[in-house]
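[09:14] KT: can someone run the structure on this one? pasting the chain below
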Amino acid sequence: MSHILRRKTFRWLTFVLFGMVLFCCGVPTTIFFFSKNMARRSLEEKLEQLAAKGIPIDDASMAEFYHQHSSADNVDRWIGVLDTLSSKSFSEQCTKLPIVGNNSNPIPKHDEPWADQAAVEQLMSQYADTMKQLLDIAQDNGPVRYPIQFQGYNTLHPYTQNSRTAARMLHLEAILAARSGDHDREFRAINAMIGVSLSIRGEPSLVSQLVVIATHGMAIQCLQSAVSANRLSAEQLAKLRARLAPFSDINHVYSVGLMGELGSAIPAFNNPSILPSPQMTRFGKLMVESGLADRAARDYAIRMEQALEIPTDNLQNFLADCEAWESQLANGGMIDRLQVALSQQYSPALSALAAAIVRVKMMNDLATLAIATRQYEFASGELPKQLEDLQSQGIDLKQFQCVDGNLPLYLIPDNTTSTASADDKASRAILWSFNPQKMAQNPTPGLSPTPPAKVTSDPTSGEMELNWWRWDFE
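[09:31] RB: done, structure tokens below
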């Protein structure tokens, strides 16, 4: 009897212990899978909301977004030109040349001898057909639809990078044209440089948009020389002003760049092999299997959505809002901080991006005002007395405020004002603004009540960028 009782007791204890094991293992497992599924559903809901707003969330929607913001017009000709300018033979021939190669010798004034001119002219002669095609297709273009295969962070943009070379060749073309006195040729080179910048403006990628900014700066540099010396006709000025108009819309560069970052990053959260941090990569599989990667992706999507909602109409507020967004710190427990840490691996340096965008707008605004100043002169026979006179040229000065809320300044010098320009010629008028980007030569950006002095150091140095903020009218 006692033996049977002991056996029943043992069996009962076995069932209890087995039940406890099932409970201890099953409940956490159930909670684990429930939490993982909830994280996945929450992420999918957020992505559906973003997609409904037209924001790309994966490779397929990135391709569709790109298709909507670009054109296939002349794409084969663009590809042919850029392939030629990225070839090994071209690179070898450019090595010792300025702008396109490693030659950093200063380029002299247009009326002075230039030791490298013969070599540059020889290069242009060798690639005359390529340059003719480039000049033709870049006169009246918009964003070009290159054959990009979107693969998240592994997406390649070879034509974007090669566009820099095209812009540099056009920079040389503009210099040669100015030195020869061929103003029509110079106009076509400057207009084509703007065209190169516009050609990649539709690519949903921060890298691409930064190349847009860089090539736009090259065009402004050449345009400044031509406008200051009054080498362009009224018709040419009108064309260039229209071509520059899109660059004052900072919301385009900002939103397209951020949307590209978001669409590239979301797939990466569930692919541990391409996580940007080695520390994160080691725990990548665990993050994916636990659902933490999905939660981090949702946090990232929410943060990027907040960034995209930052207004861009007021430059000062825009910079402040971007800095505030970037400075947000992780709160909560260890898991929350880990999610935020993973999310921040993909977060862009928003304050630096905003500073670059503001700088481009102010530079583009100054160029537009300078063009309008020459247009006023063509229409009235004299330079304007004040910026308000440019209203007759369709200028709304409220759209041209600097980051500090001030307008650029304009001066008709008198006999007591030192107005020597870069070519040591007296200036009939001076238009100036200021570089909003802090750097060693510009530690406290601000609008000076008097025109900034001309920098006469090596043109290849960063100091020469300060000259871009003063436009002299000879």
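[09:33] KT: thanks! The longest helix spans residues 2-52.
[09:34] RB: yep, looked fine to me
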